[in-house]
Design goal:
Blueprint (H helix, E strand, L loop, with lengths): L4 H29 L4 H5 L10 H19 L14 H16 L3 H4 L6 E6 L2 E6 H26 L6 H5 L3
Length: 168
Amino acid sequence: MSLSMYQASVPVFVRALSNLRHVFLKGEAHAKSKNVADDVLLQTRLVPDMLPLVKQVQIACDMACRGAARLAGAEPKSFEDNETTLAQVYDRIDRALEYVKSFRPEQIDGSETRAIQLKMRSGELNLEGQAYLLHFILPNLFFHCTTAYNLFRGMGVELGKSDFIGSM
């Protein structure tokens, strides 16, 4: 049995965002125990020229939402990047999860060769669906989820690999 585009995308996106939400819950508990305000926590970064924690979650959500939509041949839903509290971050993740879960296998299966065109800062990027999923969406999604995880670890949050990958 082969792996379908739906199986390789939507359930993976849902798991990554669900685990990201779990990591944020642990990070929030740690921050509250240290009296760290939401705005300070969300602006945390490892080095001055990197994007802050809040942007990591925004991009992770965007990757999953835009990835599912483009694979389905739909116009991606846009989310405003205006989160300043943890409650708003959880809402963002929850809305992204709801949106990603709204896509059905019949919308995404068969999208391996669907033309995907992205406007990037460096110019246009043209990919077929399978390459878009495997070489653009998944690496970006996991990069930003991993970066959020690492930011929390750097703050001293007790997290392990099972927090990141979830239970099997």
